[in-house]
Amino acid sequence: MAVLILLRHGESLWNRENKFTGWAEANLSDNGIEEAHEAGRKIKSEGLAVDIAFTSLLKRAIKTLWIVLEETGREWIPVKKSWKLNERHYGALQGLNKLEVERKYGEEQLKKWRRGYDVRPPLIAHDDERYPGNDQRYAGIPESELPLGESLKDTLLRLLPYWENNIVPELKSGKTVLAVAHGNSLRALIKHIEDISDEDITEINIPTGIPLVYEFDTEMKLISKKYLAAPEKLELSINKVRNHSLQDSF
Predict the structure, then answer these.
(1) Where along the chain do its domains lie?
(2) Is the pLDDT of residue 246 over 50?
(3) How far is Cα 227 from Cα 147, in angstroms, rounded to an integer?
């Protein structure tokens, strides 16, 4: 049996400021730091011994992972980082306040940009300071692969090869795998794991700081799924994400 733990990073400061964050960097808020500590404590209390961890190249996910590994006493395990686990790139919306975008473009357009499965945001140009090619961490990645803005579908397409070639083999070997990532990269992965339709995925909400545990058999058939949180806390956290305008800037 294989175990996969998915964890959305803790709340960031840009989340609190209601900004589209995407590939931009943002520190964890005090609440986000505590969420990470609590996630680690939950994983440890369940008796889950993580063998290998994966995360993105964005510090809010990396710092969440550091805290979880410290809480679980697993600082020594292998950690692999990849831009393929980065948040969805929000293009020209990145860094903008969502309420301001809504006032300018209307509620319906904002909803399409945020929740539509195959709707891309306005794209950035290569000379935009937000273009990933200007960031040293993405040096060596072909220009054709670096996004100017992504839909959730785009995010899934760039993530799937990494999932199949890097994460699945670890699971098939029977390891317990932890992946700390972002709202949309995790929604994309969950869509694939659970075979969720393009329409239904728009209603899936991933709470911050609450581990989601999947169990698979040796053929990678899904056996079980559960969040490590009391039902009332889980419901509160999901409703906060569902009802709050911060949803996709995490």
Answers:
(1) 2-249
(2) no
(3) 32
pLDDT band at 243 (very low <50, low <70, confident <90, very high): low
Q: Is residue 192 annotated as a catalytic residue, yes or no?
A: no
Confidence of residue 248 (pLDDT cuts 50, 70, 90): very low
Report the sign of the C-alpha dihedral through residues 129, 131, 137, 140, in that order: negative
80 vs 99: CA distance, rounded Å: 36
- 9 included as an active-site residue: yes
Q: Regarding the domain delimited by 2-249, which CATH topology (the fold level of the hierarchy) does it fall under?
A: Rossmann fold (3.40.50)
How many angstroms separate the CA atoms of 184 and 22, rounded? 9
The beta-strand segments (E) located in 95-187 are: 176-181
Burial annotation 203-225 (CB, 10 A radius, 16+ → b, else e):
ebbbbbbbbbbbebeeeeeeeee
Catalytic entry in 11, 35, 71, 87: 87
Tracing tokens 């679980």 back to the chain, one arrives at 72
- How big is the CA angle at 63 (ends 128 and 242), to the nearest 5 degrees? 75
Residue carrying structure tokens 């803005």:
149
The least confident of 33-47, 158-172, 173-187, 236-250 is 236-250
Return the CA Rg of the chain: 17
* Phi-psi label, residue 106: left if phi above 0, alpha if psi -120 to 50, beta otherwise: left
**Average pLDDT value for residue range 192-210:** 92
DSSP 139: T
